Amino acid sequence: MDKAQLNKNLCRQVEDIIFQANAxxxxxxxxxxxxxxCQYNQELKKFIQEHITNSKILSIAEDIPDIxxxxxxxxxxxxxxxxxxxxxxxxESALRDDSKWDRAHLKEQYIKIYEELCxxxxxxxxx
Length: 127
Prior knowledge:
Layout: H1 3-23, H2 30-51, H3 55-62, H4 69-83, H5 92-98, H6 100-117
Helix pairs in contact: 1-2, 1-6, 3-6
């Protein structure tokens, strides 16, 4: 794959994850969508780190949080066990609220990458 094609594909994927971050605010099946979003984030971040040569983009990518549904559910389960109160078990809306900062930060980082990456084709490809 040539540099221009790789750049075009990465721009599309970065655009897509920004769109997905926005869509999580109003999605109906948050657990499933959030889990898919987390996996996509990990794959895209790894791909960027392996294929981008621009040090500014790599620095931004390093600051993208590694989030997962498991981490949030574990935190909620511990909260439930420690409280001893079934009413304190975290709901899907609580998970949505708890992950809001990480999702917003992740989205901001991808917007920075998009602005940097999609404005300069020389930033792509270590191959």
